[in-house]
């Protein structure tokens, strides 16, 4: 099959509890052809999370080995644990025209933005979307409602959320998740628009 366009590397950030995972999961259910970049993390699995599906759960040593092997596009310390995006989850796919969603924090997104300056593939593929909760009070309610995290973890996430939200202007698109169904529609619309961006289409699109 002839490839007509590069895939979208859709970078999605937002504080824990903003709903970004639920929104992206629903959009991926509608578009099974869209891939999710499974990150590596040194944090322990939460609830029903499974290795190789939600994350690649690694020891600190194994994570450091991947850093030494230059396996990551970016990595960062978030809430006291390491998280990183593997090149193998993104590069070949977008080159082949497959859209990939990267759920990464503000530090990781800043590193990808930096990469876009020198890497033509990322420059062409990356789109940056920030998902924000409607208010801090609502974010706290959602984080407490999860019931999987300790009070200490919740406090750390609430503190970090303020720092993360303050960086929303670094993104090209802001999606306020005040109503889940509406946020899914907006995210879906963004994906469809990103697919039409001329910057990813090949020269010979009609010839
Ligand atoms: P959680 O522990 O709730 O799954 O994720 C915590 C934070 O880490 C979220 O903000 C999430 O977006 C971020 N995160 C997940 N994977 C990566 C990654 O590969 N790189 C970076 N920089 N952040 C990540």
Question: What does it look like?
Answer:
Strands 2-7-1-8-9 form a five-stranded parallel β-sheet, sandwiched between helices. Strands 4-3-6-5 form a four-stranded mixed β-sheet. The chain has helices at 20-30, 60-68, 87-95, 106-118, 120-125, 136-146, 151-165, 180-196; strands at residues 9-13, 35-36, 40-41, 56-57, 72-78, 81-86, 100-103, 126-132, 173-176. The radius of gyration is 17 Å and the shape is globular. The protein has eight helices and nine strands. The chain binds guanosine-5'-monophosphate.
Ligands: guanosine-5'-monophosphate
Low-confidence stretches: none
Question: Termini separation (Å)?
Answer: 15 Å
* Alpha-carbon Rg, integer: 17 Å
Strand content of the residues, in percent?
Answer: 15-25%
User: Quick one: overall form?
Assistant: globular
Largest sheet: 5 strands, parallel
How are the SSEs placed, and which strands pair?
Layout: E1 9-13, H1 20-30, E2 35-36, E3 40-41, E4 56-57, H2 60-68, E5 72-78, E6 81-86, H3 87-95, E7 100-103, H4 106-118, H5 120-125, E8 126-132, H6 136-146, H7 151-165, E9 173-176, H8 180-196
Parallel strand pairs: 1-7, 1-8, 2-7, 3-4, 8-9
Antiparallel strand pairs: 3-6, 5-6
Bound molecules: guanosine-5'-monophosphate.
């Amino acid at each position: 099959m002839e490839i007509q366009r590069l895939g979208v590397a859709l970078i999605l950030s937002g504080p824990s509890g903003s709903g970004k995972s639920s929104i992206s999961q629903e959009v991926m259910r509608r578009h099974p052809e869209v891939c999710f970049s499974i990150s590596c993390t040194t944090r322990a699995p939460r609830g029903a999370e499974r290795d190789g599906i939600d994350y690649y759960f690694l020891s600190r040593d194994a994570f450091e080995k991947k850093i030494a092997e230059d396996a990551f596009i970016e990595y960062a310390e978030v809430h006291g644990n390491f998280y990183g995006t593997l090149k193998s989850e993104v590069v070949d796919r977008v080159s082949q025209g497959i859209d990939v969603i990267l759920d990464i924090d503000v530090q990781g997104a800043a590193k990808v933005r930096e990469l876009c300056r020198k890497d033509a593939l990322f420059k062409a593929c990356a789109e940056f979307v920030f998902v924000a909760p409607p208010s801090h009070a609502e974010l706290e309610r959602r984080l407490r409602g999860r019931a999987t995290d300790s009070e200490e973890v919740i406090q750390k996430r609430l503190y970090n959320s303020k720092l993360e939200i303050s960086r929303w202007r670094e993104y090209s698109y802001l999606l306020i998740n005040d109503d889940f169904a509406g946020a899914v529609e907006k995210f879906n619309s963004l994906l469809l628009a990103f697919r039409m961006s001329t910057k990813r289409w090949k020269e010979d699109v009609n010839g």
